[in-house]
Amino acid sequence: MTPSAVAGLVGGLVLVVLIIVFLSRSIWLVPPARARNVERLGQFHKTLEPGLHLVLPMIDRVKDLIDLREQVVSFTGQRVITEDNVVVAIDTVLFFQVTDPRAADYEIVNYIQAIEQLAATMLRSVIGSMDLEQTLTSRDKINTLLRGVLDEASGKWGIRVTRVEIRSIDPPQSIKDAMEKQLKAEREKRAAILHAEGLQQSQVLTAEGDKRGAILRAEGEKQSAILRAQGQAEAISTVFRSIHDGDPDPKLLAYQYLQTLPQLAAGQGNTVWMIPSELTGALRMLSSAFGKPGGTDGADGARAVQTPSAAGIPGDGAAYREPVVVPPPDFGERLARDVFFGPEGGGLAGASGPEGEASGQQ
C-alpha cells in the first residue's frame, strides 16, 4: 500500500471519529421529569425539556440534570431552645419540588443545603416563640408556619416547599421525668374526679329513689286515710240514718249511755275515773222508764201482770200471749250498781280484797 493510500485511510478514520464525536455531543436525550440548562458561549441559552435535542458542540455546553420531581429531605437532631429555655432536639422532614430549573441552577449553588439551613433557622425562630408545652402540642401550627416561611424564602430559587412535618420532639430526660410525673398526677386526679362524680351520682340516684319511695308511701297512706275516713263516714252516716229511722226515745239512749260507761274505765292505765255529772240524770231517766210508783212484789220486787186476754186460754184456739214482766221501781239503781260495783253489791268491777268490801259497804 502506497503512503498516499495510507494517509487517505488515516484521514478517513479521523473524519469518522470526528463525526461520531460531533454527533454524540450534538444529540442529547432528556428523560421525563428532568431538565438540563444549556449555555452558549458562557451564557444561559435555554433549558432542555424531556425529549431529544440537538446542540452545537464546542459552542453549547449542556449542564447536569435537574430533577423536577418532588423530593424529600430529612433533617435530624436539630437542637432548638424554646421560650422557657428548654433545649429540645427536633427531627423534621421537608418535601419540596423544583419549579424553575434556571433559577435552581443559577440563583443558588446548592439548593438542598440551602433548604436545610433555612429550615433550621426558621425552626429556631418559630420554636423560640413558644414554650415547651405549646411546642409539644402545636405540631400542626409549627408545620404550617415553617411551610409558609420556607416557601416564601425559597421561591426566588425556583423551589416550592410543599410540606414540612415535625417527626419528633425530644426534650431532655429530666423534662421527660417531670412530664411523666405530671401525667401520672393528672391521671390520678381524673380518676379521683370520676370516682367522686360516680359517688355523687349514686347518692343523687339513691336520694331520688328514697324521695320517690317516700312520696309513694305518703300517697298510699293518704289514700288509705281517705278510704278509712270515707268508710268511717259511711258507717257513721249509716248508723245515723238507722238511729233516725228507728226514732229511739231518750230512755233507750240513757240505757246505751250506761252500757258505755264501763268501757271508759276498762283501760289498763285508768287508776282514777271521774264519774260524769250526766250519770244521775241517766239513772233517773232509766228509773222513770222501768219503774211504777207504789208497786211492790215479793222476794225480788218484780211482778207479772197479765193482760186481760191472758187470764185464760179460750177454747176456740185463740192465740196465747206471754205475760208482760214489769221491773220494780229500783231496777235502774240496781242496774247501775251492778254495772259499776259488780254483782252482789261488791266493789268496783274487778276490785277484790278489803278495798272492794269497803267500797261495797259504802
Overall description:
- The structure is a single chain.
- With 362 residues, this protein is α+β, with helices and mostly antiparallel strands.
- The protein folds into four domains: 16-66; 70-171, Band 7 domain (Tetrahydropterin Synthase, Chain A, 2-Layer Sandwich); 173-247; 248-264 and 276-291 and 325-362, no CATH class.
- Helix content is 52%, strand content 19%.
- The chain has ten helices and eleven strands.
- It has helices at residues 3-26, 101-106, 111-127, 132-137, 139-153, 173-246, 250-264, 278-290, 331-341, 354-361; strands spanning 27-30, 34-40, 43-48, 51-54, 60-62, 66-67, 70-81, 87-98, 159-170, 303-305, 324-326.
- The strands form four sheets. Strands 2, 3, 5 and 6 form a four-stranded antiparallel sheet that branches. A three-stranded antiparallel sheet has the order 7-8-9.
- Helix 7 (250-264) packs across helix 8 (278-290).
- The longest helix has 74 residues, at 173-246.
- It is rod-shaped, with a radius of gyration of 66 Å.
- Residues 292-326 and 345-362 have low confidence and may be disordered.
Task: Describe the structure in brief.
The chain is of the alpha+beta class. Helices cover 52% and strands 19% of the residues. It has 10 helices and 11 strands.
Secondary structure layout:
Blueprint: H1 3-26, E1 27-30, E2 34-40, E3 43-48, E4 51-54, E5 60-62, E6 66-67, E7 70-81, E8 87-98, H2 101-106, H3 111-127, H4 132-137, H5 139-153, E9 159-170, H6 173-246, H7 250-264, H8 278-290, E10 303-305, E11 324-326, H9 331-341, H10 354-361
Antiparallel strand pairs: 1-4, 2-3, 2-5, 2-6, 7-8, 8-9, 10-11
Helix pairs in contact: 3-5, 7-8, 8-9
